Amino acid sequence: MENIVFYFSGTGNSLRVAKTLIQELGSGEIVSMAKPGSYSLIKQYDTIGFVHPVYYWGLPKRVTEFIENIALGNNKGAYYYSIATYGGFVGNAVYQLHELLRKRHGVKLGYGQKLRMFANYVVAYDMNERVDEITKKSNEKLVPIINSIKKRKRSNVNKLTRIFESMNEKFVSEVSNMDKDFSVNSSCTGCGICEKVCPVKNIEMVNNKIQYRHHCEQCVACIQFCPQKAINYKNITQNRGRYTNPEINYRELSGYNR
Ligand SMILES: Cc1cc2nc3c(=O)[nH]c(=O)nc-3n(C[C@H](O)[C@H](O)[C@H](O)COP(=O)(O)O)c2cc1C
Ligand code: SF4
Ligand code: SF4
Question: Which fold has domain 3-165?
């Protein structure tokens, strides 16, 4: 049986879910949706999964582009499922993915599920201190979701309201340049971790200083993984905590993203 899981992840939550899925399904590939260009499925798969965070009540821009451009090959009959990891409110993210598959590829999302995990958007709020408790709960909630996937369960996906769609559209239209509001302070040691964890290669080290390339996804990995807390958004994040998934370190994340 062939399984493939596509993932997008800034701080490791979605990668953690993708890894667990493949472990529990027994075997399969984990492929990043962050890579540019169009991905073609060559082999035939029994299950095809998409795991991603929710951004502004919808899909991250890169996830939409990836699914729009994927070539499914001889896989129209596979079991398609998705898991949207989110921090507070999932909005239309699952519905958006369902519609992309249907309209672009004529394929039905068999099972679309949400999984509440740690809310990582440090630009919008401080980091909750109950990391262990929240992580434990989300790991527990993942178990029945994976069991449903193993049993090829089907679910209906409903759209919420148009307002969430328009907020996501606005975010997507502005996100590439949102790195203009990032700054790096003098505590930067030039370690290069931010460059390594950026899933879309939007950071370059030039003369030991980081430069943003303005195709940002706002995944906040650079802010969250910087060991010096040297990267900030406007004057908002300086005194806020930092979060990365406790089971995924920067080496693993950047290894998968490569
Ligand atoms: C730019 C941005 C926007 C977000 N918007 C939402 C949202 O609309 N609703 C929500 O519940 N969580 C939102 N979150 C939280 C993430 O979806 C959540 O923490 C997710 O599990 C992070 O996954 P990752 O660690 O794989 O990147 C947002 C996070 C970021 C970075
Ligand atoms: S991760 Fe932080 S300390 Fe390291 S290069 Fe980036 S900004 Fe500098
Ligand atoms: S620059 Fe930072 S926020 Fe933007 S995509 Fe890269 S890691 Fe994510």
Answer: Rossmann fold (3.40.50)
